[in-house]
Amino acid sequence: MATYLEFEKKIEQIQDHLETAHLKKDESTIDSLEKDLEKEVAKSMKGLSDYQKLQLARHPDRPYALDYIRFMMDDAYEIHGDRAFRDDPAILCYLGYIDGQKTMVIGEQKGRGTKHKLKRNFGMPNPEGYRKALRAVRLAEKFNIPVLMLIDTPGAYPGLGAEERGQSEAIAKNLFEFTNIKVPMISVVIGEGGSGGALAIGVADKLAMMRYSVFAVISPEGCAAILWNDPSKVEQAAKALKITPSDLHSHGLIDDILDEPLIGAHRTKEASAQVIKAYFLENIKALKALTIEEMLDQRYERLTSVGAFSE
């Protein structure tokens, strides 16, 4: 069954009536309810607070990296392991085709349901996951294959074992190595972009965010705990952190905002996959028109401009 958040309750009621009308094949009622649904979606989804957008980014029905891979890719073949320790299921690496374009897709996978959440470590990669991503990117570079990275994690796993195996070093190495990879790289935040766990696969020629995604240095819950020692101030923290695509775009921290359908990717998974696919193919075409030197210079300038300011 679909899950509805508190501010989606009226949408749920209309959709329930719409399903009943479809069962009865009552065309006049269907037309009327579809218009009502369109109006309610516009009303409910256009005035969302930052915290409500965070809720949508974490929505349990929101498509994850594996969903997008299945919608977008043909002849997809999964790459496993970092060739050093083990395979990390929280990071997916797939080689295949997107509309005939050979592509390497790397994504963070949260898992759906208790069994798969545990398997995927709730989307929190260990260092071997980031090393697997680097191995996949180097493989793509070797065979001149563009890379698409899908960010969706609450953060890198902070466990003792992860720290012992060099979590910070693995993230830092990706940040360093990705700046000089000689193939086009596109990164998209599809849900939750958390701290270094997101940055580790966020260094690219283009960094975009879906309409209802977030990107933050710390979770609002963690921020509220540190600043106020009060979990009830999570909404205040979400607003202060400036985690939404519009805030980040206005500060020049991301390049583009992808307009997933207004009702949300969790209701329109395939349509949202088409949005990402179109963005990827359009930008790959533009990047391929550049020489490797021009592309790397442009990437370096984009990355070094982050945080720049003038008095």
TrEMBL record:
Protein's pathway: Lipid metabolism; malonyl-CoA biosynthesis; malonyl-CoA from acetyl-CoA: step 1/1
What are the UniProt keywords, alphabetically?
A: ATP-binding, Cytoplasm, Fatty acid biosynthesis, Fatty acid metabolism, Ligase, Lipid biosynthesis, Lipid metabolism, Nucleotide-binding, Transferase
InterPro entries the UniProt entry points to: Acetyl_CoA_COase_a_su, ClpP/crotonase-like_dom_sf, COA_CT_C
One GO MF term: acetyl-CoA carboxylase activity
The CoA carboxyltransferase C-terminal domain, residue ranges: 36-286
PROSITE patterns attached to this UniProt entry: COA_CT_CTER (PS50989)
GO-annotated cellular components = acetyl-CoA carboxylase complex
Q: What is its main location?
A: cytoplasm
GO BP terms? fatty acid biosynthetic process; malonyl-CoA biosynthetic process
User: Could you tell me the EC number(s) of this protein?
Assistant: 2.1.3.15
Please name the Pfam families in this protein's record: ACCA (PF03255)
Location in the cell reads: Cytoplasm
Function of this protein? Component of the acetyl coenzyme A carboxylase (ACC) complex. First, biotin carboxylase catalyzes the carboxylation of biotin on its carrier protein (BCCP) and then the CO(2) group is transferred by the carboxyltransferase to acetyl-CoA to form malonyl-CoA.
Subunit comment for this entry? Acetyl-CoA carboxylase is a heterohexamer composed of biotin carboxyl carrier protein (AccB), biotin carboxylase (AccC) and two subunits each of ACCase subunit alpha (AccA) and ACCase subunit beta (AccD).
Q: What is this protein called?
A: Acetyl-coenzyme A carboxylase carboxyl transferase subunit alpha
Annotated source species: uncultured Sulfurovum sp
Q: Which gene encodes it?
A: accA
